[in-house]
Amino acid sequence: MGIKGTLWLGLLGYLFFLFASFPASLAWSWLRVDPGVLTLEEISGTPWSGRAARIIAAHFEMGPLQWKIPIDSLLKLTPRITLDLKGKDAFHLQGSVMVDKALTVYVQEMFFSSPLSSMSPLLVRIPVDLVGQLEVHVDHLAVDDGKVVAIRARGQLMNFAVGIPWDKATATKPGQSLSRIP
């Protein structure tokens, strides 16, 4: 191999090193995601394998996230990402998301588990305290052009109970009945 071949080999090796060790924090900053929608904090690793110490989605703290994108899935033009999010209070999300050449998104073997108490802030208009654990297993989900085209899933609700905080439910004005509360 001559000098040109050695230079090309060195250049290809350098480019591969840059590609393989690209910082995930820099890639995230380039995406310019609205912090009110999704925030990743203390990002480490690469876009191919990394972690965020904390995720906040729509002002809801979800916990640490780890991800992995196998390079072979990129080479096949069917990128796949494996996610593992373990939050506080038994909140857990684990599974795989893939995009094919036709831009159809597939969710495979996704497991979601959350205490209902952590979902109560999402139901701010309903003055109830929820107790229990929700578990959902998505075996297969396909989304094409924003529409669900296939789904196979199962779920269960364990130890379910509803509590009514009477201080919020009975906060009426003098002369106003509970049936007229907006």
Task: Describe this structure in a few short sentences.
By secondary structure, the protein is α+β, with helices and mostly antiparallel strands.
3D architecture notes:
This protein has an 8-stranded antiparallel sheet with strand order 1-2-3-4-5-6-7-8. Helices cover 21% and strands 47% of the residues. The protein has helices at 3-20, 24-31, 71-75, 116-119, 166-169, and strands at residues 38-45, 49-57, 60-68, 80-86, 92-99, 105-115, 129-144, 147-163. The termini are far apart. With 182 residues, it is of the alpha+beta class. The model is unreliable at 178-182 (pLDDT under 50). The protein is elongated. Strand 1 and strand 2 form a beta hairpin. It has 5 helices and 8 strands.
Strand order of the largest sheet: 1-2-3-4-5-6-7-8
The mean pLDDT is: 80
Q: How many β-strands, per DSSP?
A: 8
Main β sheet profile: 8 strands, antiparallel
**Unreliable segments of 5+ consecutive residues:** 178-182
The portion of residues forming beta strands comes to over 45%
Encode the helix/strand succession as letters. HHEEEHEEEHEEH
- Helical percentage: 10-25%
Number of helices: 5
- Computed over alpha carbons, the radius of gyration is 23 Å
How far is the N terminus from the C terminus? 81 Å
Characterize the overall form: elongated
Secondary-structure-based class equals alpha+beta
Task: Note the main attributes of this structure.
182 residues; alpha+beta; 8 strands; disordered C terminus
